[in-house]
Write a structure and sequence with these properties.
The chain is of the alpha/beta class. It has a single domain, classed as Rossmann fold (3-Layer(aba) Sandwich). The protein is about 40% helix and about 15% strand. Helix 9 runs parallel beside helix 11. Bound molecules: zinc ion (ZN) (2 copies). The site of one zinc ion has 7 residues, from helix 3. One zinc ion binds next to helix 3.
């Protein structure tokens, strides 16, 4: 049974009892094998879908040419995006658990995985910033998973951390309901603002999110940061979609 299916019965309880209590009551379950204790156990961690070439030099989506079609067609605002994993299998399930399953306790381990990757594959930058979430959605969920990951990465890699550089200005429709990449891009583009231009000007930003799907959210954030004078913007996500070798 999928992790989300297994989570379904306890989600109602989460709403009643509060998520912190839920975290205490239910120890983490491995998204791969269901074993107890970690969101991904040591054995399943060996089998995670590593992102390997060929991928787009800019956005890291699967591409046999240097640039994928999207990046060749229009220039991205970010300098590059990198991820340790493809968005599939148990890394995908663990991200879904953190994001929609209320499993906040998964964040430290996932953040450490991202930090380990960054240590081995350094990106230029002196500030780590999370992709912002609209305040009303943040209240609903209780946390912004990108913030939890970014704070962990900054701490482990000894890089400055700022969660207040960017904000969403209005609530966007849940992107899952949007049908094409173009409408998603428009939907996101108007909604990101830089709150701290003076802290952004001249800085090298490492923008952290859980997953890169079309890259439109990252691109909107990077565009706003560049407009405010950021020297560089590199994106770091746990996983990137659209990199499958064998069309999943
Ligand atoms: Zn496992
Ligand atoms: Zn690309």
């Amino acid at each position: 049974m999928s992790l989300m299916r297994r989570l379904a019965p306890v989600r109602g309880l989460a709403e009643q009892a509060g998520r912190t209590l839920l975290d205490a009551l239910y120890p983490l379950e491995c998204a791969g094998c269901g074993g107890s204790g970690k969101i991904i156990c040591d054995r399943c961690a060996q089998e995670l879908p590593r992102l390997v070439p060929p991928y787009c030099r800019v956005c890291a989506a699967y591409s046999e040419t240097e640039l994928c079609r999207a990046c060749a067609q229009s220039r991205r605002h970010f300098d590059g995006a990198r991820s340790p994993y493809r968005y599939e299998g148990s890394i995908r399930d663990s991200i879904l658990a953190l994001k929609y399953g209320g499993i906040k306790a998964a964040a430290p381990q996932l953040g450490d995985m991202l930090a380990d990757y960054l240590k081995e594959n350094p990106l230029p930058g002196d500030v780590v910033a999370p992709v912002p979430m609209h305040e009303s959605r943040r209240r609903e969920r209780g946390y912004n998973q990108a913030e939890l990951l970014a704070r962990r990465v900054a701490g482990r890699c000894d890089i400055g951390y700022r969660a207040d550089l960017l904000a969403r200005t209005r609530k966007v429709d849940p992107q899952a309901g949007m049908t094409n990449a173009a409408s998603r891009a428009t939907n996101v583009a108007d909604s990101v603002v830089v709150l701290r231009p003076s802290e952004t000007h001249g800085r090298g930003i490492i923008l952290v999110d859980d997953v890169a799907t079309t890259g439109s959210t990252l691109n909107a954030c990077a565009g706003a940061l560049k407009e405010a004078g950021a020297a560089s913007v590199w994106c770091l996500t746990l996983a990137v979609a659209g990199t499958h070798r064998t069309g999943e």
